[in-house]
UniProtKB/TrEMBL annotation:
Source organism of the structure: Streptantibioticus cattleyicolor (strain ATCC 35852 / DSM 46488 / JCM 4925 / NBRC 14057 / NRRL 8057)
UniProt KW Zinc keyword: no
Keyword tags: Membrane, Transmembrane, Transmembrane helix
Name used for this protein in its record: Integral membrane protein
Transmembrane segments: 17-37, 49-71
Cleaved signal peptide residues: none
Domain of life of the native organism: Bacteria
Any one Pfam family match given in the protein's UniProt record, by short name: DUF3311
Length: 83
């Protein structure tokens, strides 16, 4: 009779927590509209409402890349341990 595969529980590590925060932060920033629903300060004539959202596009890309690298590094370390 074959043995069932061992059940593995998900592991919560500091790098996964940081990756999760990196992924949640842009959502929170964009859903909290009251923090950026204004015209001033303008940047090069562009109202704050618009340039704040466009800045978050760049910040979100950086945070997503950081989360990806953290998880990938952890997975590589885990495979190297033989787990």
């Amino acid at each position: 009779m074959t043995k069932p595969p061992p059940t593995t529980r998900p592991v919560i590590t500091p790098s996964r927590v940081v990756a999760g925060v990196c992924l949640v932060l842009p959502f929170v920033a964009m859903l909290w509209v009251g923090s950026y629903a204004r015209v001033t300060p303008a940047l090069l004539g562009i109202p704050f409402f618009y340039w704040y959202q466009m800045a978050w596009v760049i910040v979100s890309a950086g945070l997503t890349s950081t989360a990806y690298l953290l998880v990938r590094r952890e997975e590589r370390a885990r495979k190297g341990d033989g787990r």
